[in-house]
Design brief:
The protein is of the alpha/beta class. It is built from seven helices and ten strands. The protein has helices spanning 31-41, 86-98, 102-106, 124-133, 177-190, 202-216, 243-251; strands at 26-30, 51-61, 64-71, 75-77, 82-84, 108-114, 139-145, 151-157, 162-164, 169-172.
């Protein structure tokens, strides 16, 4: 038996799920919250400067998170950075508590901001901002938007010391069953279903052309399509009668 010692060496740690399914957070953004963010980013006052906002996050399941409300706060901005005014953050917290929304205070876990160009890569200042939110939060979501349509969402899992970059996101529309019922009532009143259209003649004409071709090629009459004439009316012809025989019979 060898007495060789096992010594530690360079390693490449990896993480994998036991069920072999990839798992990463997905973010939904409420339609109205997304609309207001876009309006703020394109406001005349902001111009081409950076601007930011906070938001509340609802956990729909283990990997699905909904940004359901956003808050615009006082801030100092330029074309490179933004700085939220701490006193206004405190005022927001106090206001929510007064409105008996202490749970919403604890759900403020979203920071979004827009860059002056279309770059959505976090700057050093952006990373410093996320370090601040590590204090007391199990996670935080960062969203960076570009002015010409780009976006990048990152999920900071402070509990497990993980960062998920460029995760998928989508816009959330809440179903309104009462409005759905109203639309159904309107549809009943205003929508009439047309009767089915009459049979088209083109199919019968094509079938008749095939019969003529059969006759001139010597194969005889192969039968009118579906036993109908060109106008779609039922006709009665002997099964084996050729076009020539039919013409002689008509002449008699």
């Amino acid at each position: 038996m060898s007495n060789r010692l096992w010594l530690p060496g360079a390693t490449r740690p990896q993480i994998s799920r036991l069920d072999s399914r990839p798992s990463y957070p997905t973010v939904l953004v409420d339609y109205f919250a997304n609309r207001d963010m876009r309006y703020l980013a394109n406001s005349k006052k902001v111009g081409n400067n950076e601007v930011a906002w906070l938001g509340t996050v609802k956990e729909l399941n283990e990997d699905l998170f909904l940004v359901d409300e956003i808050f615009f706060l006082e801030q100092r901005v330029d074309t490179v950075t933004f700085d939220l005014v701490e006193e206004d953050v405190a005022r927001l917290t106090h206001k929510l508590i007064e409105e008996d929304r202490i749970d919403d205070v604890n759900r403020i876990r979203f920071l979004g901001h827009v860059h002056p160009g279309n770059s959505v890569i976090a700057s050093g200042h952006d990373l410093d901002q996320m370090d601040i939110f590590a204090n007391g939060n199990p996670y935080f979501i960062q969203a960076i938007y570009g002015r010409t349509g780009g976006s990048r969402f990152c999920f900071y899992n402070y509990t497990n010391n993980l960062k998920y970059e460029d995760i998928p996101w989508d816009i959330y529309f809440e179903e309104d069953e009462s409005r759905r019922a109203e639309i159904e009532v309107l549809a009943e009143k205003k929508v009439a279903i047309k009767p089915p259209p009459p049979k088209r003649m083109m199919g019968n004409i094509a079938g008749a052309a095939g019969c003529v071709a059969d006759y001139f090629l010597g194969d005889g009459y192969a039968g009118w399509p579906e036993g109908e004439d060109l106008l779609g009316e039922q006709v009665a012809l002997p099964d084996q009668m050729t076009l020539h025989e039919a013409g002689e019979q008509e002449a008699v």
